[in-house]
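Question thread 4412

I'm putting together a teaching handout and wanted feedback from people who do this every day. The idea is simple: show students a protein as raw sequence, then show them the structure tokens that encode its fold, then repeat with a second protein so they can compare. Below is the first pair exactly as I plan to print it.
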Amino acid sequence: MKGITPIIAIILLLLITVSMAGFAFVFLQRTLEQTAESTETGLTGQLNKQEQKFAIDGVNADGGIIYVRHTGSVNSSTDDVSVYINDVLQSCNWGGGKPAWAPNSPPKGCNVTTFTCPATIKITAPGNTDSTSC
């Protein structure tokens, strides 16, 4: 009996060690999968924002219209574009009521209050900024 007790003790210790290693492996695997998934989601969102690019296509100061073209490669919205005149944020009436904006579509007009030139017009979007003077 004295010779069997140490063998049983070693086997029990080995089983406990293997079960703890298995538990740690499963726990770490789940944690790494969740981390990878959230990183991928965040990265996809950031890349999507970087592809939302716009350019000022023209300015009609007398009519208070700034023409903006979507030059990016992903669908966007008029809500993603901010328009500034002389560093003052303007409230745009894009007309048409639809905020959706497809890439390479015809320019949309941002109707603002009439402004006088000389003025600096700037637009900002998630992927870039553009400015011009009139």
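The second pair follows. I'd like the answer to focus on this one:
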Amino acid sequence: MMYCQRCQARPALAQVQDAAGLSWALCDLCASQSQVFGSLHKLMLPALTQASPPPAQQSCPSCHQTWHILQQTSHLGCPECYRFFRVPLEAALTRLHGQTVHQGRRPHSRQERDASWMRQELEKAVAEERFEDAAQWRDRLRSLERNS
């Protein structure tokens, strides 16, 4: 089975040609992203210009940990692993969490929850064209934000 040449995490199902005329074997997700974000050439990592084996056959140059072991243990061997396995790690994180940026675990305060709820009620009132209610929600929200 051939892996996607961009993320190296999913099977390649599409053949896409970039502006330079090079053909790339991509998974459906990477192929759709290349169409959304513009030129495929800009999305490709410089390392992809050479043929490389799937991540399961590669190992980190510093600690020699393989992608297969990383998948089994969920632990990176060294700081260099972050750079070496960046593309498949980003693909795996996106698949698991929907994003690659950590948002934190800070609990929201009661005031933040109230403000969020008031914003939702304000948006709902505006969408339903209940402008008197929307004005009341706006005033309550401003009052809450002033007191903080």
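Top answer:
Good format. For the second protein you could add a caption like this: The longest helix spans residues 110-127. Residues 110-147 form one domain.
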